[in-house]
Amino acid sequence: MKARACTKTFEGRRVLSVPEISFAPGKIYALIGANGSGKSTFARLLAGVLPADGRGRVLEGPGRVGYMPQRSYAFRLTTQANILLAGKDRDRAARLMAALGLTDLARQRAGGLSGGETAKMALARLLMGSFDLLLLDEPTAAMDMESAILAEGLVDAHRRETGCTVLLITHDLQQARRMADEALFFREGQLWEQGPAETLLYTPERPETRQFLAFYGGA
What distance lies between CA 2 and its chain's CA centroid? Predict the structure, then answer.
């Protein structure tokens, strides 16, 4: 799967300008960078919920895209009904709810869930589907550490089961190091460095990347 070179401008200010990027099937890509570096905008362009400047779809080739935005949403249904919106396999939904500690909340109205519970529900709903590319924008930011680790395991198992590509936007460098095969560093709306996660997240080439890693948790 390939993302075409794209730009995005808001109110006359260019906030994103990235080159063509190819994503290999079955790999997890961690997208890192400071707030305002263009990570979420890039994900929204890939998801098709935001148009790039002067063009339509950014992704080339066929393929289904699943997207979990930063702010998880809940429909005015029960937790279980929210999850089943993405697929009618009740056994799978039950397994996902059990894995994420949502079983006791299955019949509760989703509007009454906490932020972390809503994020877990949204992730379960996404994993009910079958996609070629999963876009996860800070999927565990509202979760406690135990829940985040469980969520990471489910995402990785889903990737291995389906062969999908995962693009993970995260401020948690340890999470990126645990999960990613490849890493991309965004700065000021541009892709500054890309490479194998074990290289970029520990011994990056560019001084800007090293400075970011040192400030946000050490290289």
Answer: 17
Average pLDDT in the chain: 94
Stated pTM of the model: 0.94
Question: Which residues have CB under 8 Å from 8's CB, separation 6+?
Answer: 14, 15, 16, 17, 38, 41, 45, 50, 52, 53, 189
| Structural domain spans, the chain | 2-73+130-215
Beta strands in 20-173 (DSSP E): 21-22, 28-32, 59-60, 65-68, 133-137, 165-169
State the angle between helix axes of 90-99 and 145-162 in degrees (0 to 180), rounded to the nearest 10.
140
Spans in the chain with pLDDT lower than 70: 55-56, 62, 218-219
The fold of the 2-73+130-215 domain, in CATH, is Rossmann fold (3.40.50)
